[in-house]
Design a protein that fits this description.
The protein is an alpha/beta fold. It is 29% helix and 22% strand. Helix 4 crosses helix 5. Bound molecules: iron/sulfur cluster.
Length: 457
């Protein structure tokens, strides 16, 4: 780190009662990241800008990445004047332009505040990541995020490449003619997909990508982008695996993993409901062989009449993706083709009625998710549709462009704060679980607190 004199003594900031402000972290044109003496880091919760401190941040989770934001200037707080505003040049290196730095947090945490910045005129949209507020304190980076899941399911330190490679070799012998297993090799070894890696490592949850099509056109779709200025982070699967290939991969995983989960609906595919003709027979084949394992589907849940037979065939749990529980905001982001939000809700009610475990994959963006309008709507939604779990996920999309898009359909009031939102929901819905990952059925219906004491594999 440049601009530093004496490294201070390493001390747990929580010791001192009074939270300490974090030093601002910025980057120069070359992408070198450094802290800026005299300035405090600032977080954005919609239009609300505030300095972040040791009291409302966590140590940057392992595996997180720092993002350099081009075409933008950081919004910082001058420690001398207390003024919050954009800073375009490095005061210690005249003329040197500086840029915002954001945290792309590793799984298990939800953003409390986004990175604070101002766009330069003509700025291009940011790539498909989430951009959390980050600062420097003591000897480390701290992130404005809230821990919602402590399970090490996607902890990269527990996924050594050599073990993945030997897992691939083993599956080549076990499933020699299985195209889906070969596809997952690409996911694990090339895309670095943690779900793909876990299949070859024999851990937690295995992915069952199946669908080439989708009946939504999400602004932030990571498998097929309609916006010429955005790149999807992975290509959609190029074939439709057979029921036998799907069941083969699922059974191989269930046979060797305790409390295993196998999931349809991955980042490298469209929506699994569009491939129900393969998925139904695959579920039947799996359940004919074993009652073990949890068969889960991550989906936009747009087609209740297609979902119903899959639930009857043996689907154990459903995770429904949504950025909002209000039709206008949902439609503005998902841009559904041939379905309406009401059908998504119908699917949720159907699965609850059939006693299945239902989770919301709630795509969070500070300033929208904790807006008073969305907060009020979420309370009403959860009253009417008692799902089991909210997976608090970070929306991988340019936060300012997203807020503009949402604000264009429904004006956003001043944010209530993500931490207060999570506390309010938890207080009102005490049986509602919080998390980040799809739980195995062994942990269904457990109380929220029991969930946190989950056994490592
Ligand atoms: S539902 Fe999934 S696959 Fe479909 S457009 Fe949205 S992100 Fe993409």
């Amino acid at each position: 780190m440049r601009n530093r004199k004496q490294p201070p003594r390493k001390r747990n900031p929580k010791d001192s009662k009074k939270p300490e402000l974090l030093l601002a972290v910025v980057a120069n044109e070359k992408g070198e990241i450094f802290d800026l003496e005299g300035f405090a880091a600032v977080g954005a919760d919609g239009k609300l800008l505030s300095p972040i401190s040791t009291g409302d941040t966590i140590e940057l989770p392992h595996g997180s990445e720092l993002m350099f934001l081009p075409d933008r200037m950081p919004v910082l707080m001058d420690l001398e004047t207390g003024q919050i505003g954009p800073v375009d040049r490095n005061p210690y290196s005249p003329g040197e332009r500086i840029f915002p730095v954001a945290a792309f947090n590793s799984p298990g945490v939800v953003l409390a505040q986004s990175c604070a910045y101002e766009e330069h005129p003509g700025a291009s949209i940011l790539p498909l990541f989430s951009y959390g507020a980050v600062g420097w304190h003591g000897h480390g980076f701290r992130s404005a995020a809230i821990v919602v899941d402590t399970e090490p399911r996607q902890d990269l330190r527990l996924m050594p490449r050599e073990n993945i490679v030997s897992g691939v070799e083993q599956m080549r012998m076990q499933l020699p003619d299985n195209r889906l297993a070969r596809h997952l090799e690409h996911c694990a070894l090339t895309y670095g997909c943690p779900a793909g890696k876990n299949f070859f490592l024999g851990r937690y949850e295995a992915p069952l990508p199946t669908s080439r099509a989708c009946n939504a056109r999400c602004l932030g779709c990571i498998s097929l982008q309609h916006d010429a200025h955005l790149t999807s982070s992975q290509n959609r699967i190029g074939f439709t695996p057979s029921a036998e290939e799907i069941a083969g991969v699922a059974l191989a995983h269930i046979a060797r993993v305790k409390n295993s989960v196998v999931s349809f609906g991955q980042g490298c595919e469209g929506d699994p409901l569009m491939a129900a003709r393969m998925i139904g027979p695959a579920i039947a084949q799996i359940r004919k062989k074993t009652a073990d394992g949890t068969i889960n589907m991550n989906t936009n849940a747009s087609l209740p009449h297609v979902l119903a037979p899959l639930l009857d065939a043996g689907l154990d749990s459903l995770r429904v993706s949504m950025n909002s529980v209000r039709e206008t905001c949902y439609t503005a982001y998902f841009r559904p083709k041939g379905y309406r939000f009401s059908q998504v809700v119908e699917s949720i009610d159907l699965a609850i009625a059939k006693g299945k475990h239902v989770a919301i994959n709630y795509l969070n963006c500070p300033g929208f998710t904790d807006s008073p309008e969305e907060t009020a709507a979420l309370f009403v939604f959860l009253e009417k549709h008692p799902v089991n779990l909210i997976q608090w996920r970070n929306l991988n999309f340019d936060p300012q462009r997203y807020l503009q898009a949402m604000n264009s359909v429904v004006p956003l009031g001043p944010a209530v704060g993500m931490e207060p939102l999570l506390q309010m929901i938890r207080k009102r819905f005490s049986n509602l679980q919080y998390g980040y990952f799809n739980p195995p059925k062994e942990r269904f219906q457990a109380s929220p607190d029991a969930v946190q004491k989950k056994a490592a594999p």
